[in-house]
């Protein structure tokens, strides 16, 4: 599901990626990044979740887009690997991307 309002909200969140990346360890999971980003920008995060609320899995959908957009910051991070077990914001375990800061 994509709509222009959701895209604008994701673009707004993306403006903070560099700031959040700076706060991360040298290696981090997409789950860790999402947790920091959502805490720092709760207002926008809740709005974008609302845009996806009718699809039945708003968190999974939004988190997927947030994680994939990290790829737009190749000058700051690079995709390292996929791990099958990472704790998400709900305390559940599922797969996640691991990112490395570019030095």
User: Please, how many domains?
Assistant: 1
* Secondary-structure element string: HHEHHHEE
Biggest sheet details: 3 strands, antiparallel
> Rg, please?
13 Å
Structural class, please? alpha+beta
Unreliable sequence segments: none
The global form is globular
Query: What percentage of the residues does DSSP assign to strands (E)?
Result: 15-25%
Terminal CA distance: 35 Å
Q: Helical segment tally?
A: 5
- Helix proportion range: 40-55%
- What is the arithmetic mean of pLDDT? 94
Strand order of the largest sheet: 1-3-2
Question: Can you offer a commentary on this structure?
Answer:
- This protein has 103 residues and is an alpha+beta fold.
- It has one domain.
- The chain is 50% helix and 22% strand.
- It is built from five helices and three strands; from the N terminus they run ααβαααββ.
- It has helices spanning 4-14, 17-23, 30-40, 42-51, 58-69; strands at residues 27-29, 77-87, 93-101.
- It has a three-stranded antiparallel sheet.
- A hairpin with a 5-residue loop joins β2 and β3 (93-101).
- The longest helix has 12 residues, at 58-69.
- The protein is globular, with a radius of gyration of 13 Å.
- The relative contact order is 0.21.
- The model has no long low-confidence stretch (mean pLDDT 94).
